Amino acid sequence: MPMVVFITAPKGKGREIARTLVERRVAACVNVVSGVSSYYWWEGKLESDEEDLLVVKTCEEALGELERVVREIHPYSVPELVAVPIVRGLKEYLDWICKEVRTGGSPAGGGG
């Protein structure tokens, strides 16, 4: 099933993370939205930061590996990683997502 994953990263770090996710084939596409203002509680204190928001297109079968890669390369000790199923969209685009993402070393869709 195609998924959208939201990940925030420190301002200026989003492009590097996006490129790594696509290069490692755990994402078919990543959009980087710069200049996102985030407000959140961390260790009992209200924090605010300028961040990059990554909008990651992937497949459900690749979520475990995507999470592993994010934990490996992300500078935050607890990075935001929220996955949402895509319940509807252009069929050809959704098929493309799962074709481009690899799980277990092979394309998720079983094709080339």
Structure description:
The structure is a single chain. With 112 residues, the protein is of the alpha+beta class. It has one domain: 2-Layer Sandwich (Alpha-Beta Plaits), CATH 3.30.70.120. The chain is 28% helix and 41% strand. The strands form 2 sheets. A 4-stranded antiparallel β-sheet has the order 2-3-1-4. Strands 5-6 form a two-stranded antiparallel ribbon. The longest helix is centred in the middle third of the chain and has 11 residues, at 63-73.
Q: Short summary of the structure?
A:
The protein has 112 residues and is of the alpha+beta class. Helix content is 28%, strand content 41%.
Radius of gyration: 15 Å
- CA-CA gap between termini: 18 Å
Shape: elongated
Write out the strand line-up for the largest beta sheet, numbering strands in chain order. Answer: 2-3-1-4
User: CATH first level: which class?
Assistant: Alpha Beta
Number of domains: 1
Helix content: 25-40%
Per the CATH scheme, the topology name is Alpha-Beta Plaits
Mean pLDDT: 92
Write the layout of secondary structure elements.
Blueprint: E1 2-10, H1 14-23, E2 29-42, E3 45-59, H2 63-73, E4 82-85, H3 91-100, E5 102-103, E6 106-107
Antiparallel strand pairs: 1-3, 1-4, 2-3, 5-6
